[in-house]
Amino acid sequence: MSVEETLQAQEGLAASATALGTAEQKTKDNPNPQMGEQYRPSLATRILGGGVGLSIGAMIAAFIVGGLLIAVTDSKTQQASQYFFARPSDTLIYGWRAASEAYVALFQGSIFNFEANTFVRQINPLFETLTVSIPLILAGLAVAIAFRTGLFNIGAQGQIILGAIFATFVAINFNFPLVVTLLLIIIGGLLGGAIWGGLVGLLKAKTGAHEVILSIMLNYIAVYLLQYLLKNSLQRPGNTNPISPIFEDNAIFPRIFGDGTPFRLHWGFVLALAAVFFVSWLLNRSTIGFRLRAVGANPGAAKNAGISVSAGYILVMSIAGALAGLAGALQVSGTEKVLNTGVAASFGFDAITVALLGRSTPWGTFFAALLYGAFRAGGTNMQVSTGTPIDLVLVVQALIVLFIAAPPLVRAIFRLPDPAKPRKKSAKKKASQKAVEAK
Amino acid sequence: MSTAVLDTPREEKTEIVKNWKNPTILSVIAVISLILLGFRAPAKQVTFRLGDGIRWADIPNLQIPAVAYGWVAAVVMIALALFSLVLMNRGKKMPLILNVVFWFFFISGILVWAIGSASSSNVSLVSILSGALALSIPMIFGSMGGLLCERSGVVNIAIEGQLLFGAFSAVLVGSMTDSPWAGLLAAMIGGVLVSLILATFSIKYLVDQTIVGVVVNVLVSGLTGFFFTRILQANPAELNSAPKLPGFEIPVLSQIPVVGPVLFNQSVLIYLMYIVVGLIWFALNKSKWGLRTRAVGEHPKAADTLGVNVNRLRFSNVLMAGAVAGMGGAFFTLVSVSTFNADMTSGQGYIALAALIFGRWKPLGALMASLLFGFSLQMQFVLSGLGTTIPTELLAMLPYVVTILAVAGLVGRSRGPAASGKPYIKG
Question: What pLDDT does residue A431 have?
């Protein structure tokens, strides 16, 4: 047995011991004497009722609601429903067809297109998903890290824009070799976002102003600043539209698989992945992260323990802003290769739901961002090929988060067991059995 | 959120520092105004037409030389800022009325300066102001909806969703029944439905209120966008063209110069707004319901001890808030234009939230803040219509910058309802 394995085994033991301890405590603390008998949830209960089961249940429920929406608004289904009582099967068949076609298109646009002729084309949607998810990962982290410190960063949108502005400024004005320019672009993006986010943290810490209001206002200011700059110093020469010059080759992140393939995925994805590792380390392994989490968990207690709450707010908002700013920089110099007014799309707002879905953990946010990237990439294909509006994707996304946020609801829908409580039914059964035995 | 916890220990320590914020900010604004309004004033006469809509007399136009007015405004503002610094040095606050004077000169100074730098400097004051009032309607209703929620302890980020769904329901039902009144009723019901989600998840399932609010906004944006493309656009003549709410003139009152046509010759929704704001102000401050609502928002446990059913009151207040905000949504499709468009509320729900906080969670404060936002929105339209040389983007930024300054400087010390955002679990 190697050292690592021993350690792991010990950790496992310790974990099960603490689990047992809490279980025992629970039964001890249980105020209800009738349920005093030892209750330990079975493995199936824990899996079905815990995080995984809930997430899957929430997704299924959200997709079912989305499917119903597609079916109900489908014109053929509506026609068939007029003679529903004469031949109900028609309505159901048309409805099923409309919903399944849309979802197949969603899948084909986001993961694997089995209708394409070459393998490269078939697998291309997956890489499109990864490309789209880059800004979502970074902005999602920006929201998540602030959440963990007890702040609601609704301003990722503005931070993305500022990052993009700074990056574009670098790209237009400096003409260095590729690596140097890209490094400057990254620094610019980080800096731009950090200023915008740090401003929120600073004002919150120094004046006590509410961060939600500050970031909403800064979002609008960023939008107008972008519009202004695109008509002035950042505008493409000889153009009246609000658009920047196309980036030179030395200011563009190269594609990971080279220019020969159709895959748009660029090295920015690796940076985003690195950011996930960084935030994960920062939050879970570093002193700073510990302080930030302490501030988030209980600012009063953190203050009493000698942790500066103000410094925590300023720091975390700067880091969050820098992450979102990097998203903006990668978006202009990796994916779009140009700056226009739509650079931030709705990434900053999607990032909020991404962070919520990922429960504000770095890796949770990463996978949630991949899922949202898939929705975004697939939604476009769904709209083009089946005419189902991409807004459906928003509905499904919102429903997933709502369902996940309210576990009792999903448990009620799917009759999943609740790991925290013994099943009421079985308890009742036992009670009735006892009653019978007593008789 | 965590602010309330944090503010308690900090307040005593930084009391003196915080008091310096208002004078400092006034001074900064005054100096900027001196540079902008005084030194960079356009050498022009600005003409305000005052007589529109008045039938009984011929009211002369107001002619203002931009340079002179700019200097007067800047000097008055500097004087007031200095006065507030002197007062603060003696540990006193500047009286509210002088603050109002300061902001009046700032806003009117900017107005004169901006119109003076346009190519046409002859404008109707009545149409500017009545347009501003109309544009602030959704924000006023929205902030009232937010107020009803927050004063009873539920954060309402979902104002945007309530407005949007109100607008959608209004156009759908209004077009189907061909009656704007049915549309208005539908808007209120639409707002209530959105509130129902907010209330169910945040009060029954104890999900974080801010999170529910944000997610509900996404949900409503998606749903209305989906139905708009799928249903409304398929049959725009029958489903997406609602009749407008009628407007009428209140006799006598509407003949007061300037004020009359602005306030009393409007759409019926604006008169409804007066009633709603008045009712909320009265009910909140003078009625049993208001006392209970405020108690539940500040200290739910105390209210519970005295026999108030905290969660039931919160639930009904959130639903009521939906109805109020829904009426604001009706503005978009029953007053402004008569067709729905995807995401047509364009973030005004968030501005309404800002107005609520800017207005210190009070009905009249929120009303004034909403009017300020409406005014600046109107100025963008007016100035781009006049062909101004100032970049409209920078002007458009102004209200947001002012809000940040105000939230950081003026109202930083005020705090929201203590229990806002915290679910109440009995026991």
Answer: 54
What local confidence, expressed as pLDDT, does residue A39 receive?
53
Higher pLDDT, A320 or B7: A320
**Based on the structure, what is the number of domains in chain B?**
2
Within a domain: B113: yes
Residues 382-421 on A with a CB inside 8 Å of B are 388-389, 391-399, 401-402, 405-406, 408-409
Which chain A positions have a beta carbon within 8 Å of B400's beta carbon? 217-218, 220-221, 224
Is the ipTM value over 0.95, yes or no? no
Chain A residues with beta carbon closer than 8 angstroms to that of B234? 75
Query: Can you list the residues of chain A whose pLDDT is less than 70?
Result: 1-51, 419-439
Q: Is A220 exposed, middle or buried (0-12, 13-18, 19+ CB in 10 A)?
A: buried
* Per-residue pLDDT tens digits for A150-196: 998 989 999 999 999 999 999 999 889 999 999 999 999 999 999 99
Radius of gyration, CA atoms only, chain A = 26
Contact B424, B153 (CB under 8 A): yes
Return the closest-CA partner of residue A405 out of A58, A95, A78, A103.
A58
Nearest to B398 by CA among B150, B125, B161, B114: B114
Nearest to A391 among B3, B226, B394 (CB): B226
Q: How far does A223 lie from chain B, in Å, by closest CA? A: 9
Write down which residue in B75, B98, B117 finishes a domain: B117
pLDDT at A438: 56
Res. B389: pLDDT tops 60: yes
Asked if residue B131 and residue B113 are part of one domain, the reply reads no
Q: Are residues B225 and B323 in the same domain?
A: yes
Judge if B66 and B107 occupy the same domain: yes
Contact A150 B2 (CB under 8 A): yes
Residues of chain B contacting residue A213, judged by C-beta atoms under 8 Å apart: 353-354, 357-358, 403, 407
CB B404 to CB A217 under 8 A? yes
Q: Residue B204 belongs to what domain range?
A: 126-372
Give the tens place of pLDDT for each residue, B351-367: 898 888 888 889 998 99
B212, part of any domain: yes
Mutation pick from B1, B230, B233 vs chain A, by most beta carbons of A within 10 Å, is B230
What burial letters (b/e) apply to B241-274, b meaning 16+ CB within 10 Å?
A: bbbbbeeeeeeeebbebbebbbbbbbbbbbebbe
Residue B414 sits at the chain A interface (C-beta within 8 Å): no
Q: Which of B18, B222, B400 lies closest to A395 in CB terms?
A: B222
- Closest approach of A364 to chain B, Cα-based (Å): 17
- In this structure, the answer to whether residues B132 and B65 fall within a common structural domain is no
B395 falls within a domain: no
Query: H-helix or E-strand containing B63?
Result: strand B62-65
B 212-251 → A contacts, CB under 8 A: 212, 214-216, 218-219, 221-231, 234
Do B291 and B316 fall within a single domain? yes
Q: Find tokens 């102004």 and name the residue.
A: B398
Which of B117, B141, B158 is at the close of a domain?
B117
Overall average pLDDT of the B154-167 stretch: 94
